[in-house]
Amino acid sequence: MNKYLALLLVLFFSLSSFAQKSYPLLNEINEYKEQDAKNFPQPNGILFVGSSSLRMWKNLEIVYKDYHAINRGFGGSTLGQAIYYADDIIYPYQPRQIIIYSGENDLAEGASIEVTFDRFKTLFDIIRKKMPNVPIAFISIKPSPSRINLMPQMAATNQLIAYFLAQQTNAKYINVFDAMLQENMQPKSDIFLSDNLHMNEKGYQIWINIITPYLIKK
What is the value of pTM for the model shown? Predict the structure, then answer.
């Protein structure tokens, strides 16, 4: 019996390790599922979905409590992973509006401007097929000191997405990029944490000032 139990434990941990490697960020997705099982967000809220700039916005749901905001930012996720996990972190919530922040990590991992843009269009299209009338807004890819070398690609990707959204119905492009730059067009140094990638409270206040007018009230 002990040998049998040991084999089961080995198999369990082997499968867990395989799942983590095969499905990156699955642990965070499962944490959201566990959270939902205990207290599922009320429908018709505003869903924020994307990467760690949302995940690390710890008081997002408090700031936008009156909007019934739902924060489903996860890890250092890419647009590709947002597409993959759409069944888990987008569709179940029946939101009245979806706010997306993603694409920065795609570029950082070596995806081209064109590939990143195509991934965004794919995400947009799959949401539209399931939720044809839900307004969608995209927060522009942000500049950061640790990724200065990627700023030209970020700006170009933002431009493509902005133009694409301008041709769509119920779609908005939210430009936070420009407000995060100094006069010399370099990222502001005092709005980031020590990693020079994620924002501090001052950085998120810039976002709040810009994003809020785009949010749809009940």
Answer: 0.88
